[in-house]
Design goal:
Blueprint: H1 9-20, H2 24-33, H3 39-63, H4 70-78, H5 80-109, H6 119-139, H7 141-165, H8 172-176, H9 186-198, H10 217-246, H11 249-252, H12 258-267, H13 269-303, H14 321-337, H15 344-376, H16 380-403, H17 406-429
Helix pairs in contact: 1-7, 1-10, 1-13, 2-10, 3-9, 3-10, 3-15, 3-16, 4-5, 4-15, 5-6, 5-13, 5-14, 5-15, 5-17, 6-7, 6-13, 6-14, 7-10, 7-13, 9-16, 12-13, 13-14, 15-16, 15-17
């Protein structure tokens, strides 16, 4: 009998796809246009890499059905410190991602409310969005799942419309004449493109994080993870191809709303309104899903005495309400401190920092999977296949990390270093438990 308070398979698929289809898909075509149409190959490479990582997460979810996703797996493989470091980086990813998505959502709302061009009003709107989805998650994880299912269905409508109808306005010469505009080698362009496109796949592990709140997790988590990644990969690749074939690269790279520009070509002025609405829905859905995840990951850490105890306290619905409120308060502070008339450069930096912060947990999980398989593998063929997938996934993560560039890698190193004194302070105040 299904548990009415838990996430169903459809809700899980919506959580995976909804977390990935956020602000990134609406902005990345413009960023990638500066690299050239070779970035379409970056989508392919990233899709394969995401699928490798997703298969590993799906397998681990059946072996270790615990709340926490990458944190639970790396802690099982390497122990408390690496588990903490993984969760800390993942928590940073969610923090940074939520801030960026809230800013992007407010930017899309400017289509309907021009007054939001004012940086103070824009920050206030972003903060209100953060607290709206925080309240939804505090009410209960299943209600958050229902919201995720609805917003995921709505957000795919405009994407599919551009993907399906855009090829009627397709110009092959726009693709062939702008293959590599980066000024660097094809390999460098492909690698940098892969680092940018990975931002759009962050959240692929979403179904594994709230494992304790999932109906039939051993069956539903693997299905939701693989199906979600495949759906998103197809939508991303085809929609980006359609837009690059509709708008010349020299024009596209300067666009602040590439999907809206494409919709205007197809439908006229009303198209911009349709895509604007879809973009807002997309961002709110991603914001809801990421808020759910940041509450679950910090709760899992606190349950193991690797995070402040307040993050483990549940309300009557079993939700870590105090943890959600605390993190949302900190996000609000960040949004106030970063109020600026022009956040494009800052937003791009946020994307790369979030991507790097997510790659650390993905890399640790892929490597740690080899140790877990050795402990729990039930047959040579199964063990060998999943080990190969995990190794290829780890190699992809390492390649993508290099593609973020020296500046972002230095930021990542600082985050890793900061984890050590924080972990030490937590252990000194309350030793970790098993």
């Amino acid at each position: 009998m299904k548990n009415a308070k838990k996430l169903s398979l459809l809700m899980l698929i919506a959580l995976v796809t909804g977390n990935m289809v956020g602000s990134g898909v609406y902005l990345l075509p413009a960023s990638l246009a500066g690299i050239g149409s070779i970035s379409l190959l970056s989508w392919v490479a990233t899709s394969i890499g995401a699928l490798l990582i997703g298969i590993t997460f799906a397998k681990l979810s059946t072996l270790i059905p615990k709340t926490g996703g990458p944190y639970a797996y790396t802690r099982e493989a390497f122990g408390d410190f690496i588990g903490f470091q993984t969760a800390f980086n993942y928590w940073i990813t969610l923090w940074v991602g939520i801030s960026g998505i809230a800013v992007a959502a407010t930017g899309y709302l400017r289509i309907f409310i021009p007054a939001l061009a004012n940086p103070k009003l824009s920050s206030l709107c972003a903060i209100l969005l953060v607290w709206l989805v925080t309240f939804i998650n505090i009410v209960g994880v299943r209600k958050a799942g229902i919201i995720q299912l609805i917003t995921t269905i709505l957000k795919f409508i405009p994407l599919i419309m551009v993907m399906a109808l855009g090829f009627w306005f397709f110009h092959p010469s726009y693709i062939s004449q702008a293959f590599n505009l980066s000024g660097h080698s094809n390999w460098h362009a492909l690698t940098h493109g892969a680092s940018l496109t990975l931002w759009a796949f962050i959240g692929l592990e979403a179904a594994t994080v709230p494992a304790g709140s999932v109906d039939n997790p051993k069956r539903n988590i693997p299905i939701a993870t693989i199906v979600g990644i495949i759906i998103v990969a197809i939508v991303y690749s085809l929609s980006s191809l359609a837009i690059m074939g509709m708008i010349p690269a020299t024009t596209l790279m300067h666009s602040t709303s590439p999907f809206a520009d494409a919709a205007a070509i197809i439908f006229g002025p009303i198209g911009r309104i349709i895509i604007g609405f879809g973009a807002v829905i997309s961002c709110v859905g991603a914001l809801n899903g990421w808020t759910l995840l940041q509450g679950q990951i910090s709760m899992a850490m606190a349950d193991n005495a690797l995070f402040p105890a307040l993050f483990a306290k549940r309300n009557k619905q079993g939700v870590p309400a105090l943890g959600l409120i605390t993190t949302s308060g900190l996000i609000s502070l960040v949004l106030l401190l970063t109020a600026d008339p022009n956040l494009i450069h800052q937003f791009n930096t946020i994307i790369l920092i979030a991507t790097l912060s997510s790659l650390i947990p993905y890399f640790y999980t892929s490597v740690g999977a080899l140790l877990i398989y050795r402990k729990t593998g039930k047959g040579l063929k199964t063990l060998l296949w999943h080990s190969i997938v995990a190794i290829l996934g780890a190699m992809y993560c390492f390649w993508a990390i290099l593609g973020t560039g020296p500046k972002i890698i230095s930021y990542g190193a600082i985050i890793l270093i900061l984890a050590l004194p924080l972990y030490t302070w937590i252990r000194l105040n309350k030793p970790a438990i098993d």
